[in-house]
Amino acid sequence: MSTTADPAGVLTGSHYIDGDHACAEGALAAGCRFVAGYPITPSTEVVERIAGRFPRVGDGIFIQMEDEIASSIAIQGAMWGGKKVMTVSSGPGFSLMMEHIGLAAMTEVPCVFVDVQRGGPSTGLPTRPGQADMMQARWGSHGDYEIIAMCPNSPQEAFHLTFDAFNLAERYRVPVLVMLDECVGHMIEKVVIPRADELEVVERKWTRKKPGEYLPYEVTDGSMVPDACKAGDGYRIHTTGLTHDERGYPTMNWRAQEKLIRRLVDKIRGQAGEIVRYEENDVDDADVVVVAYGITSRVAKRSIESARKRGIKVGMHRLVVAWPFPEQRIAELSRRVKGLVVAEMNYGQMSLEVERVAAGRCPTRLVGHGGGMVHDPEDIERAIVEVAQ
Amino acid sequence: MSDVQGSKPSSATNPVDPFLRIDRMPSIWCPGCGIGTTVNCFTRALIECGLDLDKVAIVSGIGCTGRVAGYLNLDSFHTTHGRPIPFATGLKLANPELKVVVYSGDGDLTAIGGNHLIHAARRNVDLVVVCVNNHTYGMTGGQVTPTTPPPAIASTTPYGAFEEPFSLPLLADSCGAVYVARWTTYHVRQIAKAMREALQKRGLSFIEIISPCPTLYARRNRLGDGLAAMKYYKQASVIQNGADTRQVGIGYQDKIICGKFVDRERETWLESYNKRHVAALGSKFRPYPTGLPEVSEPAGGNHGHD
What we know:
The complex is a heterodimer.
Chain A: E1 2-4, E2 13-18, H1 19-30, E3 32-37, H2 44-57, E4 61-64, H3 68-80, E5 84-89, H4 91-96, H5 98-107, E6 111-119, E7 125-129, H6 134-139, E8 148-150, H7 155-172, E9 175-181, H8 182-186, E10 188-193, E11 200-202, E12 238-240, H9 254-269, H10 272-275, E13 278-281, E14 288-292, H11 295-309, E15 314-319, E16 321-323, H12 327-336, E17 339-343, H13 350-358, E18 364-367, H14 377-388
Parallel strand pairs in A: 3-4, 3-5, 5-6, 6-9, 8-9, 14-15, 14-17, 17-18
Antiparallel strand pairs in A: 1-11, 2-10, 6-7, 8-16, 13-15
Helix pairs in contact in A: 1-2, 1-7, 3-5, 11-14, 12-13
Chain B: H1 35-49, E1 56-60, H2 68-71, E2 75-78, H3 84-94, E3 99-105, H4 106-112, H5 114-123, E4 127-133, E5 136-137, E6 143-144, H6 168-175, E7 179-184, H7 188-199, E8 205-210, H8 214-220, H9 226-236, E9 237-239, E10 256-263, H10 269-281
Parallel strand pairs in B: 1-2, 1-3, 3-4, 4-8, 7-8, 9-10
Antiparallel strand pairs in B: 5-6, 7-10
Helix pairs in contact in B: 1-7, 4-5, 5-6
């Protein structure tokens, strides 16, 4: 199921590029060969790069659709055509895509949604950062489902996490959301792209069954993830956003709903230990742990260094994968620290999750910010000092 | 028909059975509804068009006609409301070997999905779009649509529709569709022929089929049953092939101008895509397959990243 990357899409070498461009290169390296998008600041550079690269890489189609609704379903048609697919947007467009995150979850379409977050709500601050789409990423479409969301904090990580997003999408047949913020999207840094043979790509798990034997939503192993097929191979499959059975046929009753939705939720919750990813620094002796992600984790780093100089034992827990949330690890930390400080560019989203998991074992202190500008590191440091006391 | 998977020809079998998911019958459609008639015509067109049915995919949106995909024994996709065209666009561009048919209703394709229809026609994506127009949202109980002719009664226009309706052939024509036809469900042979022609066409074909909704539209307007609708279609239809699409609007219980209005050639999206990139990039461009036999093979070679 896994192989090395197709060299045609891998721009091996050192580059001086921004997070949006690095995101595009991560997709190309992962084998993405269909992108549909609609221009929106601050994400547009991702599709601009794709539009320039696909014709030279070969076998790829970029299409600028009439809106984000169309983009977010064109990729799903293309997935059934056999491609690895992605769409890209920012807050207002991301809002329009919610319906099709639900469709992708329901019909188990491996696909990647990139959201380069800006200040919101509504049109908000198009050219300035935000981190206020985190709960929307988790809960934005109606109904009950699970997704995976990742939060790079540098162009280098934008490359790697976008690459990984495709692998996770294929492994679990879910939409995977890459949640950049405007700062990471537009920040230019060195990005090292490995050789193709150093990049492990998860291929789609094609069914080995013959037409007539294959059921598109039958689960035959413990993974709870059905095997794939594509249109045109003789399987004559049916898929629907309606509640469906193993044949993909609409089945309008509570038992079918229970069976399907339970599996869609459990296939991620049951594997959360495999998917969860975080980075920690200085937590071993810490009295206070700062939880942050994206650009805010880099601001918080300075706050932590400064607080350490003042003798405060403080460390960092950086969310690399935000959803599924690292419940187990945050619970562990909450048992042995004086308090958790959550710094994020919103007025309380991931902090609610931290607070829920800490469950009163230690206080959770939010350092919120409306977006448009990164935090002042002193604000985070002040919270660290107060919680440490 | 030997290529029809699972078919077991027998003298007692309806010739359309192999094209249907018999295990899903009966359909949800009401007695007198025209959608099933159009599906029957579509299966006839599939028999006649000579395509490998493993390479034909059907995409529907939401609503009564949105259920068509689920009843056909093809690769079939029941998508979200209004969005079968962009789904089909992605499917076709990802695998150009497929013949992709969008089959949905007037509410789905021209209200919530209207933006996608006009842009797909402008782009000339290689799709067949079948729009079953019953002038109403049947699935949700008979609300007004962009094609309801005033002053018809609908549940959300209890005192009569008053907005100017779309004339769908004009809309499709003016946006660039290469094939535009309209028939009613009385015209079963003509529908099947139009569908066959559309399946053999390259580019975006648009077929409007005027179809009765006895349960909601006809009942509210006291227009009788499905048979009464057939009598009206027979009496009111005027066949004018090649008619100026600016002249084919439909008034309430007025004449219905039918026929093949547009049949022309234009480069498809993929043909234009390849042509432009060959012109701009020469041998650095790696042409994308169009699903057509190659006419001229552009020089390959440099696959670098410069």
